Amino acid sequence: MSYTALYRKFRPATFDEVKGQDAIVRTLTNQIRADRLGHAYLFCGTRGTGKTSVAKIFAKAVNCEHPVDGNPCNECPSCRAIAAGSSMNVIEIDAASNNGVDDVRQIRDEVAYSPTEGRFKVYIIDEVHMLSNAAFNALLKTLEEPPSYVIFILATTEVQRIPVTILSRCQRYDFHRIAQDTILARLQELVAAEQVGAEEKALRYIARRGDGSLRDAVSLLDQCIAFYLGETLTYDRVLEVLGAVDTDVYSDLLRKILRDDVVGAIRTLETLIRQGRDLTQFVTDFSWYLRNLMLLKSSDDMEDVLDVSTESLARLREESALIRNDTLMRYIRILSELSGAIRFSTNKRVQVEMALIKLCKPEAESDEISLVERIRKLEMAVEQMMANGVPVSAGGGPQQAGGTYGAGAPGADGGYGMPLFGSGGSDAQGRSHDVPVTPPRAVPEDLKKICGMWKKIVGAAAGRMRNALSSAVPRYHSQDENDTKLYVELAPDSMTDRFPEDEVRSQELEQLIADVTGIRVEVKFVPAMDENLRRGGLSRIEIDELVREQVHMEVDIED
Question: What residues contact residue 461 under an 8 Å CB cut-off, 6+ apart?
């Protein structure tokens, strides 16, 4: 005798054997016991949730000679004939291949004849959404007022494609996805019946891969048993058969991404590809891993929902402290977009590599969350430099050994230096002086705000003042904490020599700044700065230059 697939061999024969659809089973058995049967039913829901199985059980129950509490006895001639597929009272039609108006007209002609045996003629039309519009229209009248001995059961996975006129004539039953624990319990029953040794962890992974479909999970179990026939089914063997990846790999990959280790992440992907892992499933499982991490960060009472081992839960808790919610949401968004694109991609590896680079490098994207991530990394880099004793300028850049700072030049740690003029310098031959450099004080918050709105201040000025400010540079005294004045360095050709000493002009700019920013500050004009003024501690207020270098896009700092 030929082999029968597990999902066919263990197909439910009574309502009691149906898993995960308790509400539907109870409603149908109550109708059968009370003899309150409808003439048309619509079973809709995702694949593998029991629609066709329930339809066949229902067909047996309404024609059973000795029903038991709403269930078919499976012993009478009628039940045996229906189970064998030889009954003339139960007609199964595949609407995918019989979707024309002529096929429906044939049904309409056949319902005129009463059943030769039993009480009801039951028409089970599977994938009914595949019927054409003309076929649906031909079915309408028969479906609304069939003979008393006819019952229609329509089954579909795409209920949105069913015309409203058909829906209004049927009792609708929505078959929901089956819970993972319910699928796991059923798989354990099957391996016990088949006398196959299997680890619970292996069966749990198969249950999760079923994604709410019991038939899919049973088919995967059948595949794994066939590969390791006569051997114990372990978690590692299931991963090998299904081309999946262990959760330890996802944990290691996430930590590499958090360290911006692009090379390490690509090497991990290379290893998985050499092992023959399925990239589509890899993306799906990695998204699921991050989903568990998100749930754990959202609440402390998620242990039962996560359904992971104690070791995995401890690892997730450790990683939840290493990542922020918005960063995690960016990761999940990138992987979700990848999951949709990779299914139709001819080069899946390139797609996954691009996504890994995006995860490690926020500058590869320009959305709001990525921008926030770049700024956060910038702040962390500055804090790290300060913690290591590296003098940092007002703009956030590291101070170089000679006391001079190259604007836009990369520092030792990959950052970018900002111009800052301290007590050191170099002579004409480029030799550095042996003058100790004093770390500059932080820029006062008011001056930062004024500098951030400098473009607005210039735009609000008029005439000669506007021309002068358009090329002016705001500075502050980096060595004297008591000096809170705003020094405005003027270009050599912007104004006459007497303009810097004109107190009326200074007061005019002070009032302009107060009107635009709401901040009162004392202003002092200074000419184009020479080396002596720089050594005196006047430093340029540059807040946004380092940000531009890090985020690779134009930035306007506003209030």
Answer: 469, 509, 512
